[in-house]
Specification:
97 residues; alpha+beta; Arc Repressor Mutant, subunit A; 3-stranded antiparallel sheet; two-stranded antiparallel ribbon; 5 strands; globular
Length: 97
């Protein structure tokens, strides 16, 4: 039996993101928010930190889920990509759900 799922959003209008396990979504979301609450990071830095944080406890592709959830958080206005070179990600809302 499949666990509860969530339809993730995509920040680009007209694009549809993936439907994934709610448990995996929440694990990745909590970690991304925690990481970005400390500092702004490039995409590579963010995915590396996420991998370091959850690889030992997470079943599945950390980077794939990380990208899917990051896009969802961008679409929801929780995370944004800065206009700097290289672009960095930062937390817009300090929420812990």
């Amino acid at each position: 039996m499949k666990g509860e799922q969530i339809q993730t959003l995509h920040p680009q209008a007209g694009k549809k993101n993936k439907r994934i396990s709610l448990d995996k979504y929440l694990t990745v979301k909590e970690n991304i928010i925690s990481i970005l609450s400390e500092t702004q990071l490039t995409h590579t830095e963010l995915m590396e930190r996420l991998y370091e944080n959850i690889n030992d406890i997470f079943e599945g592709g950390v980077q794939w889920y990380g990208e899917t959830v990051k896009l969802d958080l961008e679409a929801r206005g929780i995370v944004e990509r800065t206009g700097s070179k290289p672009a960095k990600y930062r937390l817009l809302k300090d929420i812990q759900e």
